[in-house]
Structures
1.
Amino acid sequence: MAPNHERIAAEHRGVGASRRRGAELEDAILDAAWEVLIEHGYHGFTYEAVAARAGTSRPVLYRRWPQRGDLLLATLSAFWQPIAVPETGGLRDDAIGFLRNANADRAPTITLMSVQLVDYFRDTGTSFSQLRDTILPPGRESAFETIVARAVGRGELPDVPRSPRVVNLPFDLLRHDLLTTMRAVPDESIVEIVDGVWLPLLGVSGAPSSG
Amino acid sequence: MAPNHERIAAEHRGVGASRRRGAELEDAILDAAWEVLIEHGYHGFTYEAVAARAGTSRPVLYRRWPQRGDLLLATLSAFWQPIAVPETGGLRDDAIGFLRNANADRAPTITLMSVQLVDYFRDTGTSFSQLRDTILPPGRESAFETIVARAVGRGELPDVPRSPRVVNLPFDLLRHDLLTTMRAVPDESIVEIVDGVWLPLLGVSGAPSSG
DNA sequence: CATTTAAGGTACGTTGCTGTATCTAATGCG
DNA sequence: CGCATTAGATACAGCAACGTACCTTAAATG
């Protein structure tokens, strides 16, 4: 008859804290869900595991998200943030800086996003690209479109049409490496992508050191 | 007391055939395993499903492959084939032809290989690249290394050092598109990769039509 | 033909997760 | 305070797959 259950749950959220409600509880659950997703992938992303990690019980989750996909979407929407685009005043540094940010931010998660979620994609018949469009506000300029536009504005690049493929090439290559190696890309790869591939393709001299 | 079981299993391998053994049985199992893997991914790649598809029983599988990873490795090794490199006599056509082959061959499987298998990668701490090295004989020249070397031999390209990243760029981009869209890449993308990215980067004029 | 090997079927207990139902007690609000 | 809400615990049946044990019978071997 002693309130043993409450004490157990309280351990998960710190001694002295009492029963959570509403947004506070929801945030705690989504935090837990995100951690589970990162650590164990979509396969381990079970109501059981999320509830345990959040220090609550499965019915609480079922009340809010009846389907696993609902919980997944809510979790991703809460944590998927756009990557910061640095503004260094130079095309090369903007590109390298952005790729470094992306590498740091996405290394733990992009493998998750497009890879761990395949079971979800399979179940729903969707794909990574589609999910991305669902989560992110559509019609937004991509980071490299911004970077190139700035360089054109500065006169660093000629104002000629460029295909999205060429503009976004660095990010695609970074993503490719992230996906196939499933870990953060070494910094030399980032420099190589920019100096050895992208800048030459844009007709810019390339690395400042090697001419 | 009637040999009912035998009759049931026989249905899966055609009437009149009797009990399979050794290599014959093993091949049939790997065929079934491959089909299951393609259709249901690693998640659905269970002893249960493979045994059922092969018309045999789980103990038969456990005797040969005690771990699920063993069965997976055996299956992939049996079915992972190198992609044909066409020999057209021209750099551009070699590249486009190879990418078309890769697109056709890998569209159903590369999403599987690097994407469906993440649970396996997670369990074993490996990655797509490592698995590839395990399956394929190492030290082999890549397809695009061959293609470039031929072009150099013909005098179509200057004999200068080129980074593996530049040489293999088209395949990496194709793979990127396959991974993120999870379906075959449209032919225009292949042409765009070669004419709009790779050939300009190599210092070749690009598409024959647009100048 | 006799013997050994192994395929094939069946059964069992176990595990992990699913949904749902039910109960309690804490919280917020009037 | 009194009431409605709902967090949190627990229990249940169900399912799918696991891994193993066992028995039989077919095929290979001598």
2.
Amino acid sequence: MIILSKLADYGVIVATHMAAERDRQANAAAIAAATRLPQATVAKVLKALAHKGLVTATRGATGGYRLARAAGAISLAEVVAAIDGDIGLTQCSVHAAGCARTNYCPTRPHWAVVNRAVGEALSAVSLDDMRASQAFAAYPPATAAPPQPEPPRYSA
Amino acid sequence: MIILSKLADYGVIVATHMAAERDRQANAAAIAAATRLPQATVAKVLKALAHKGLVTATRGATGGYRLARAAGAISLAEVVAAIDGDIGLTQCSVHAAGCARTNYCPTRPHWAVVNRAVGEALSAVSLDDMRASQAFAAYPPATAAPPQPEPPRYSA
DNA sequence: CATATAGAGGACCAATCTAGTACCAATTGG
DNA sequence: CCAATTGGTACTAGATTGGTCCTCTATATG
């Protein structure tokens, strides 16, 4: 299962890229080129980030985007939530009102714990952390991963 | 954003229900009635759980399912992985080989940390934990499904 | 042995969601 | 004014998902 949508993933890539040059302003096209992502899609992602106030936008000629805060003060949770919406494991975590089971579902109360754990995991990592470099070289090359033994692996 | 698919959510509900009566064997229809989930879908979920060895199936007349292990020894991570597949935040976490960005993507190495945190959050909760406690008293009788002209929508 | 029951394993479909694009309005610098 | 750039929305093709159904195999029982 994939947890993040592609767009949210792009969001993180874009935001991380911006964190690398926080004080410089860049327009959508430049960011798309730098990250090698489709330009129109990057523009869409940036709009979402701007909407949530994670980046500030300047319109008009010579306009562009820059991070609204220090890279260390923006967490993955915020970036992801800006694009994919608030984080919840189950439907009822996000739209409790819409669940007909709410009244008798015995599992519901327990999701909150896991929910919080996931949220904290995403909140604990800032753009600065994502940007930090060293692991780049150390990370294994992209060769196909060997078949893994059972049960759940959280690949990577 | 919703992290679990509906099917995975159902899986947890079904597994939790089975944990409540671990030694009793029940067939798919009975479990569907007790959990008020669509029967054919519950059957599908149970097959997936059986495939991963989380429940054991007995075929034939008087057949059915039961948990393969103690409820305390089955984690949410396993149930979810049985249905939604292995857990990964991003595409590249699950299918690293398929990502053209792999070679230069600077964010990739950092997902592993978050990935593991999410996995651990799901691994830390057992079916016993989900079942534990209060909310259960309110749960309607398990075996005799109350007359239901129309199945309720739990699309949430 | 015959029959009814129940899971195994797919095939299939409709509905929804997603990624990506396109378009036009608003804003700003030159 | 003109060009560049974001804001916002609408749209489409394709993928994904939830849900159903059908056929095959295994088992209990009379």
